[in-house]
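Structure tokens please, single chain.
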Amino acid sequence: MTWQDNYQVWKNYQDLDPALAQELADMADDQEALENAFTKPMAFGTAGMRGLIGPGIGQMNLYTVGAAAEGLARFMDTLDDKDKQRGVAISFDSRYQSREFAHHSAQVLGAHGIPSFVFDDIRPTPELSFAVRHLHTYAGIMITASHNPKQYNGFKIYGPDGGQMPPKAADQITEYVNGIDNMFTVKTVKETTLRKQNLVHIIGEDVDEDYLAGVKAVSVNPKLIDEVGKDMTLIYTPLHGTGHIIGYRALKDAGYDHFTMVKEQAIADPEFPTVTHPNPEFPEAFNMAIELGKKQGADLLVATDPDADRLGAAVRMPNGEYQLMTGNQIASVLLNYILKAKQDAGKLPADGMVVKSIVSTELATKIADHYGVKMVNVLTGFKYIAEQIKLAEQNHDHTFLFGFEESFGYLINPFVRDKDAIQSTILLAEVAADYKQQGLTLYDGIQQLYKTYGYFKEKTTAKEFDGVDGADKMAAIMKSLRDSKPTEFAGVKVETTDDYQTQVATHQDGSTEKLDLPVSNVLKYWLADGTWIAVRPSGTEPKIKFYIGTNGKTDEEATQKLTDFENALTQWVKD
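Here you go.
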């Protein structure tokens, strides 16, 4: 069907939700908007789906969400009754229609006789992961678009272990979703009826208390908080998201008495009125926290994104200004603190394991090697880190100590199986307290790591491809890279090219070897000077991401190399 055919189906549907009907009418003269909304169905994959909110088969609305929930329900219909009756935990963030999408999902599941456990209000993604494990549900649904702008929302599915649904099951769910001929025919049952049938349960404080108990336990040295942390000045901003409910309580429970929330950003507002991007990766997200931090002389500024799975931080410099930490820097100081503290206490396990994505800093590998801990590299996506935790538990061969992605996602204790900004906030504050006790700041701590292991610099850039032909343009760029087989960047030779789509590593001399990670549309180049460059299309946004990781004997050398490689990569994309 053409986009015009799809548009007419929606336009002619008599029972269309009134709000969507009005939006559809408002779009009538905007052909570009209509094409984007009706040309292609929303892509549903292993990470669920994410997109603009609005009418049409290609946007987030009650009907596309209903189809996603129906796909999960049909999958659960194939399970034995015991697993099916374990039900689904459902949470949602502060975005437009998140609550409606969550309860609509429960109504779809209820039509299949599947119980739902729905949070009474917004809760973070990591708490949803915890709830799946804590309540022993078979699956979880998180309604969120994470750090995307206000126009977006999304639908993520979690599996029985609290991690994102495993690939095999996710593929089956995708087939069921794609097999729905008419999303308007997806059945729902009124929630009042489902409540009477015990098919919808409202959860909240009962889960909060147990989740917060787990968060409190991430502290490596509680005495340090009593001695130093309680007097340390912190600024926390939840960026209008779910963190304000749990983050505040977690900091209080841990013993950080002198922290202040950025009150304007502690309001759960789907407009995200104080920021253009509610993303702690963006410097402007810290503008208000920095202003407040300067007034109070704060030791540390932290920010969580709207679903509180990502954590950003800013450290006070010697001149009193604040500098944002990169995700790799945060991960490195957390990892170093965990391993050193465990070693000092005689509790560092001989089978310790750290897990990171292939596009994250090699500084962490140096730190892990120093402490004799195994570093496991996985594809981008926290589900792969969760998978390694599950394998280690099943095989009894490794003890998980830390996991992270450079995109501001970290996990300390695996009672959660996704990145957890609440856990990370508590431990990063403890790291800051540790340095404060030594008369140092987190900035000093980062410099110490560089002096010990070398100056590592990383940068991630992205090129966006909006519109209906965006996916084709991204595919063309990836094909061009594979066809051209670059032999150098910025004059530095490529020694090995890892192609995770073919699962083959090709060396400069033409020899090859098998890559043992799953198939993925990712290219990674290892250069002669120790630099690496990776290219991958985003799994959740219409963009291609370019990653550079380099190092040098001095900060200046590493910075210059990073600039040179970034310029070379920018020129290549233009060409």
